[in-house]
Design goal:
Helix content: 25-40%
Oligomer: single chain
Largest sheet: 7 strands, parallel
Number of strands: 15
Strand content: 15-25%
Structural class: alpha/beta
Strand order of the largest sheet: 3-2-1-6-7-8-9
Order of helices and strands: EHEEEEHEHEHEHEEHEHEHEHEHEHHH
Distance between the termini: 40 Å
Length: 396
């Protein structure tokens, strides 16, 4: 929901960067997924010295492989433990918490002019201490939405408020994140747009127009977990098919997770056809998107949801959850997709009816509109946005 008392953030990206900025920047984050790695790769091309400190090589539930090519990366000494996350809307998920305990010594060795720390936890607290001791600049990269942050404890809010006051700059990944940061009193002039961009290693090479038997085939990409809303989606599709026995629904799931077995054992009506395709690397994902017409993204909480960008790049309209910032930011109702709330089953039925009522010609227009929506959100331009921030912080 838009707060009418909050000024709209700028969501414009600068052109791709050229030249080199003569300053030293160290980025700290948990691990390096492909989309983030490509932005960091382009940053490394345009900074005198750029290095990345990771808490871990990769979290146990990820299957990215090595994404560090062309980047100066070091893995910190760190403790990692998991804890349950029970969201205010009712779902449960597992979170990994990282405590990189050599951050101060790593930063002393690197001697960065600017520290770019992801999230608002222990690594950012230690980064703030370094910047305070050595009079360096601190930029905090914040990737949240108002929905994901529901129910956070009071101690966490106190830490975040203190950290945000210490930061010289703070980035936001979308309008909901912007509103969240404004509630903490971060002034507009210290806020910088730093969105998610699809990795340029993901290349959809298939045709924009799908074959007729794929036009309305649904594709769901993501972990098969409670937070991702896959079981409510499957239940909703089953009820929809029972109520519309003459309508056939086909859906492919790409991903793995602890609900996979339960999904396999789910008894489905005859007119609902499901395939579980497991994990796929980028090249296989591109081929799978060629044989599906519509992405459905049923998440119950995502601070962004990069698969929405990826699907639109592949010319797929999206039926997207309103609990993901990507859906709320990128989807234009009836033009490049449909927005719905997955905990309101009747809304799913309405969007499916709208999708099946959309003929091939209209879908073709929606596919072109989807591609146009994300064509300017590239790793190069996101890197240019960060470089603009670093240049401002480094200027006398």
């Amino acid at each position: 929901m838009t707060n009418l008392n909050t000024p709209s953030p700028s969501l414009e990206l600068p052109p791709a960067a050229s030249g080199q900025l003569a300053c030293r920047v160290t980025a700290l984050t948990h691990y390096l997924p492909p989309y983030m790695a490509r932005v960091h790769y382009y940053l490394a091309q345009h900074l005198q010295d750029f290095r990345v400190l990771l808490s871990v090589e990769q979290e146990p539930n990820r299957q990215f492989g090595n994404t560090w090519q062309g980047i100066n990366v070091a893995v910190q000494k760190s403790w990692m433990f998991s804890r349950p996350w029970k969201h205010g809307s009712g779902f449960k998920d597992e979170l990994y918490v990282h405590v990189p305990y050599d951050t101060l010594s790593q930063l002393r060795r690197a001697r960065p002019d600017i520290v770019f720390s992801y999230e608002l936890g222990f690594r950012s607290l230690t980064s703030a201490l370094y910047c305070k001791l050595y009079r360096k600049k601190l930029a905090l990269c914040v990737c949240v939405s108002e929905h994901t942050e529901q129910g956070r404890g009071g101690l966490r809010h106190l830490l975040r408020r203190a950290l945000l006051k210490l930061a010289d700059a703070v980035t936001y990944n979308g309008p909901s994140c912007y509103r969240y940061l404004k509630r903490y009193g971060v002034p507009h002039e210290r806020l910088y747009y730093f969105p998610y961009a699809t990795s340029d290693l993901f290349r959809y090479t298939g045709p924009l127009v799908r074959k007729s038997n794929a036009d309305h085939r649904l594709l769901c990409v993501g972990q098969l977990t409670e937070r991702k809303g896959v079981m409510p989606l499957l239940d909703g599709l089953a009820e929809y098919c029972k109520a519309r026995p003459n309508q056939s629904v086909d859906i492919d799931f790409i991903g793995t997770g602890n609900l996979e077995q339960a999904m396999r054992e789910r008894v489905l009506p005859r007119n609902l056809h499901m395939r579980l395709l497991g994990h796929m690397p980028y090249d296989a994902l591109s081929r799978a998107m060629e044989h599906a017409g519509i992405l459905i993204f049923p998440t119950l909480a995502d601070e962004w949801g990069l698969v929405v960008n990826e699907a639109m790049q592949a010319g797929m309209p999206v039926i997207g959850s309103g609990y993901a910032q990507a859906s709320c930011t990128l989807i234009r109702e009836g033009e490049n997709g449909w927005l719905y709330y997955p905990d309101q089953p009747q809304q799913l039925w309405q969007k499916l009816d709208s999708m099946f009522a959309t003929d091939a010609e209209q879908l073709g227009q929606m596919r072109s509109a989807a591609q146009a929506t994300v064509q300017h959100i590239t790793p190069q331009r996101v890197a240019a946005s960060a470089l603009s921030l670093f240049a401002r912080l480094h200027s006398p």
